[in-house]
Amino acid sequence: MAMLLLLSGLMLLSQPPRSLGTEMNTYSGKTLTTTACTLVMCSPAENGPPGRDGRDGQEGLRGEKGDSGSPGAVGPTGLPGPVGVIGPKGDSGSAGEPGPKGDSGRPGPPGPPGVPGPAGREGPKGMQGNIGPQGKPGPKGEAGPKGEVGAPGMQGSSGTRGPTGPKGERGAPGERGAPGNAGVAGPAGATGPQGPLGARGPPGLKGDRGAPGDKGAKGESGLPDVTALRQQVEVLQGHVQRLQGTLSHYKKVELFPDGRSVGDKIFKTAGFEKSFQNAQKICTQAGGQLPSPRSAAENEAVSQLLIAQNRGAAFLSMTDSKTEGKFTYPSGEPLVYSNWAPGEPNNDRGDEDCVEIFTNGKWNDKSCAESRFVICEF
């Protein structure tokens, strides 16, 4: 045993100084600890005699790397490091699938009413609408107090004659009116001139021979009958005058615009309103008169002209100014046709001597001082 300890001491002494500590640690941790334990357990060491000075031994072989020690305990959390630089923006991810529709929430309470906004600008003016249909005549109003007679106005200067318009196409013949009542027979006219000689008739049967008559005076020579020729010329001149008058009449009618025709009558208007007297004067100057309907067809023509001109009423020619309640034509003849509205004529307030016609064709007695649409009859 002593020999073994001696050899161990020699080996330690032979190690280089730089590695002595390391090796000592190694042997202390491993070999020497085990050996010392063995030595302690076997027998206590004895002090031997001092040894001789030995020489430094050579460096031994490097031992193999020991096994990794067990991991130490987890150290405390270190301080957070500085914020790093923001990296570049990553690519957008693909759109996810839409999630299921959520349940509808309960409706919220109504909000308070908003403050009214400022008034908007006025819009552009709209286009004028079309003329509406003719309304029904309203109830007859009460007649106002009779006004004072105004001063006669100054006669206006006559206007220049306009150019003759082109001749219009011949209108379709109107419906034949109902036959009028026979008028009062006029006085017998003056005896007209002797007519021309008639054609010579066929010879008659030979009569019995009569007694010889007295000898007559010597007759004139057989020249043409001058008197008969003169009579024929006079007849032709009368025809020419009538044709000229008819032509002049129709020229005046053609210059008067807007009308309707029934049979031989023509109803036309100039498109303005006048009192009865002024309307009568205008129609007379044009060669006609105010309308005098003598049948339902003529009455309908006047009312249709009112509708076409979008007017409410027009004066007719008949009046009862001579005898109250007895309406007559301008010639003085009694009416042969009438179409009074219910309850008319009533001479309201004693001042209704003229007659007006409405769009429905009904008549009403009216004050002659009122202004009504002017229609003339030719």
| Cα-to-Cα separation, first versus last residue | 178 Å
- How many runs of DSSP E, i.e. beta strands? 6
- Helix and strand content put the structural class at alpha+beta
Question: What low-confidence regions span 5 or more consecutive residues with pLDDT below 50?
Answer: 17-43
Spatial sequence of strands, sheet with the most strands: 1-2-6
Helix count?
A: 5
Percentage of residues in DSSP E strands: 5-15%
Largest sheet: 3 strands, antiparallel
Mean pLDDT: 73
Shape: rod-shaped
Helicity, as a percent range: 10-25%
Q: Return Rg in Å.
A: 73 Å
Order of helices and strands: HHHEEHHEEEE
Summarize the structure.
With 378 residues, the protein is an alpha+beta fold. The protein contains five helices and six strands; from the N terminus they run H-H-H-E-E-H-H-E-E-E-E.
Care to describe what's here?
This protein has 378 residues and is α+β, with helices and mostly antiparallel strands. 23% of the residues lie in helices and 10% in strands. It contains 5 helices and 6 strands; from the N terminus they run αααββααββββ. The chain has helices at 2-13, 20-42, 226-255, 276-285, 296-308, and strands spanning 259-262, 265-274, 313-319, 354-358, 363-366, 372-377. The strands form 2 sheets. It has a 3-stranded antiparallel beta sheet with strand order 1-2-6. β1 (259-262) and β2 (265-274) form a beta hairpin. The longest helix is centred in the middle third of the chain and has 30 residues, at 226-255. Mean pLDDT is 73; it is low at 17-43.
